[in-house]
Amino acid sequence: MHHRMMRGVPELPEVETARRQLRREITGARVVKALALDPKMCENIGPGELERGLTGKIVEGIERHGKNLFLDLGGSMLHIHLGMSGSLHVLSGWDRRMTHERLRLELDSGTMVFDDPRRFGRYGLTGSVEDFVAKKGLGPDALSVDGRVLLERLNARRGTIKPLLLDQRVVAGIGNLYADELLFQLRVHPRTPVAALSPSRIEAMGERGREVLRASIEAGTDFSLLPDGYLLRDRSGGAPCPRCSAPLTTLKVGGRTSVICPACQACPSG
DNA sequence: GAGTATGTTATATG
DNA sequence: GCATATAACATACT
Known about the structure:
globular; 7 helices; 11 strands; DNA-binding; about 270 residues; alpha+beta; single chain
C-alpha cells in the first residue's frame, strides 16, 4: 500500500492536507530507523546526528506554520519544508526506494518517505514551532490572517502588492498560485503599489485570502474541484477569464510569472 | 538545445 | 534600513 499525502506544488493548502493525512496515519508511531539520504537537504545538522535524533522517538502530533511541517517527537520536532517539488508518502510493507527519496522514517506501523526530485526541500530538528518561526522571521500563518491582521502587516511596508503577499515574513503560506488567485478575485493588478490600495480593500483581501485557502483544502487541492469563478481551475495564458471571458495574459512581477485578466485587473495608473 | 517551472536565500544596487 | 532585481540552487518537462 502506498498513500501520497498531498497533490500539487506545496503551498499552504497542500501542506495542510499532508498534515491532516499524516495525523491520521502516523500519530503514535515509533521511529524504528531513520535515513537522512541527502546531506545537502539537512538544515543545520549532519545526516548522522539527525538520524540519531530521530531514532526511537514517538510521533506525538503533526503541526504546520505556513508551508512548514513539523513532526512533534516529544521534546524536539522534525521540521520539513517541501520546497518546489517535494511530496510525502506513507508506505506499508516492503516498498522499494522511491525515485527521488531524500528522507525515510521507518516506523513500527509503516514508512514515511519524503520524495523530492529538485532537492529544494529541507529538513532538520527544531525545539518548537515558535522557535523556528522566530528564527526565520516568519509572519503569522495565512489561515489565521483576517482583514485586520493583513492591514496591520502591510501598513508597515512599502512596495508592490504581489511580492509582498509572497514574502513569508509578511504572511506565511501564500505562494505564487494562491497569490494570483487572490489578486484575481479582488480585481487587483499584481503590480499595484500597496499605497494605492485603500484600507478597506486590503481588509477585504485578508478576509478573502483565508476563504481561498480553505476552499482549496476542502477541494483536496484538486483545482478542478474548486468553485466556479476560480482562476486556478484553468490558470494558463489565453484561457478565458471565468468572470468576463477575456483571454488571460501572463506577465512577470518581482521575477515571478503572474496570470491575470487584463480586463478585470486594471493596470495601476500611478 | 532553449526555455519554462508553482520556493527560498544570498548578494548587489539604488 | 528598505525596496528591487538577479542569480543560484537541481531537476524535469515541453
